[in-house]
Design a protein that fits this description.
By secondary structure, the chain is an alpha+beta fold. The protein is 65% helix and 9% strand. The longest helix is centred in the middle third of the chain and has 85 residues.
Length: 407
């Protein structure tokens, strides 16, 4: 009923109404007994009972009593004074002390509440003894026991309320934490998918467009002197565009690479080398070592993409005349090596940030593909000494790695 009191719930509202009815019923009992007995103070008892009931009824309707502990204490003092006046007139008023205990413990502070209960119990015992014109220890049992029961009930309820409120706060914190975790997981998923899409676009569409560009430039160079060769380059560019269109359609539909459809990984790598040799001025050969074992789709796609990206880099940047792609099946892992006789380069001391204009996505994408499946990726190169790229993947991915979704 005040700022310090627990907020009312449907259960506490029901208990409050029961307490109100108990107070009014006990006051009505005192007035009814007075009428039945027909004593000389009957009128006064009825008047004081009515006044006490009105004062009590007004309190819960006043906002200040519900919000302020001081106003609630003042209201309780007025109710207590009316009760004391009724107690001097009728011994039946002693029963009203029981609901007063609950009000005092609920509305007053932790120190004032028990003190008020003790004072109310003492007044009830003294008033009843005065009406009986004698005192016996048994007279104290009822008020004292009522005070003890009221204290146990109120303090037990307050303990339960505090525990319930603590659990409510924990549930709210848990709900907020789950919402934050869901948001973080969503963000992580978005970033992971963005990274995957970037690698797929680089290793398929971007490399395909670069190949088409190289073929069209070659056609442009030979067009004046050898139109038939230019037509061959244009036809190869058209075929490359058709292949990349198929890649794009399956990429959008999140399907396996068309190079792996109805074929083994070794077959797809062999065709890739033959296609590269036919379209560009480089001799690309494929070599298989070990006994092929079944691989997961994620392994096959990762190895194929690494080989595609590495061979595309060789064609565009290495100025190489020959390249060799080797797929090796070993006891506990599978490896792919791409070796060329090109100009090589100086390995960067750290991973450079990709540049949308000049590229730089290829090496980072290849390394990320290998690491996503618990593997390793290494580069051996030097200016004028060619380049060797090697990727190794375990045949059984570690449990804490997430296999990359296949495009």
């Amino acid at each position: 009923m005040n700022s310090a009191a627990p907020a009312l719930t449907p259960t506490t509202r029901s208990l409050a109404w029961c307490l109100h009815l108990l107070v009014i019923g006990l006051l009505a009992l005192a007035a009814g007994r007075a009428v039945t007995d027909g004593g000389p103070d009957t009128g006064w008892i009825i008047a004081v009972s009515t006044a006490c009931g009105l004062v009590y009824a007004v309190g819960p309707t006043l906002p200040c009593v519900r919000r302020s502990r001081r106003a609630a204490a003042l209201w309780l003092a007025v109710v207590g004074a009316c009760w004391l006046a009724l107690l001097t007139l009728s011994s039946d008023a002693v029963w009203v002390a029981f609901p007063l205990y609950f009000l005092q413990l609920h509305l007053l502070s932790r120190r004032a509440g028990p003190a008020a209960v003790v004072a109310t119990a003492a007044a009830a015992i003294a008033g009843f003894a005065a009406h009986q014109h004698s005192f016996a220890p048994a007279m104290a049992i009822g008020p004292a026991l009522g005070a003890a029961v009221a204290a146990a009930v109120v303090w037990g309820y307050q303990a339960l309320y505090r525990e319930s409120d603590h659990r409510r706060r924990l549930i709210e914190e848990l709900t907020a934490t789950r919402a934050d975790l869901a948001a973080a997981q969503h963000t992580a998923g978005v970033l992971a998918e963005r990274d995957r899409l970037a690698r797929e676009i680089h290793d398929t569409l971007a490399q395909g467009l670069s190949s088409i560009q190289l073929l069209l430039r070659a056609a442009e160079r030979v067009l004046p002197q050898a139109p038939q060769n230019a037509a061959r380059y244009v036809d190869q560019a058209r075929q490359a565009a058709a292949d990349n269109l198929a890649e794009a359609r399956r990429f959008v539909a999140a399907l396996t690479s068309p190079a792996l459809e109805g074929s083994t990984l070794a077959g797809a790598l062999d065709r890739m080398c033959k296609t590269t040799s036919a379209r560009h001025r480089i001799t690309a050969r494929f070599h298989l070592t070990g006994t092929p074992t079944p691989l997961t789709t994620a392994h096959e796609v990762a190895l194929l993409r690494i080989a595609q990206s590495a061979l595309a880099n060789t064609v565009q940047h290495a100025e190489a005349t020959a390249a060799k792609v080797t797929l090796s099946y070993r006891d506990d892992h599978v490896a792919i090596d791409i070796v060329d006789d090109g100009c090589g380069f100086e390995p960067p001391a750290h991973r450079p940030d990709p540049d949308p204009e000049t590229g730089g996505f290829g090496l980072a994408a290849m390394r990320a593909r290998a690491q996503d499946l618990g593997g390793t990726f290494t580069i051996e190169t030097a200016p004028g000494h060619g380049t060797t790229l090697a990727a190794q993947l375990p045949l059984t991915p570690p449990a804490d790695t997430k296999p990359e979704a296949c495009p």
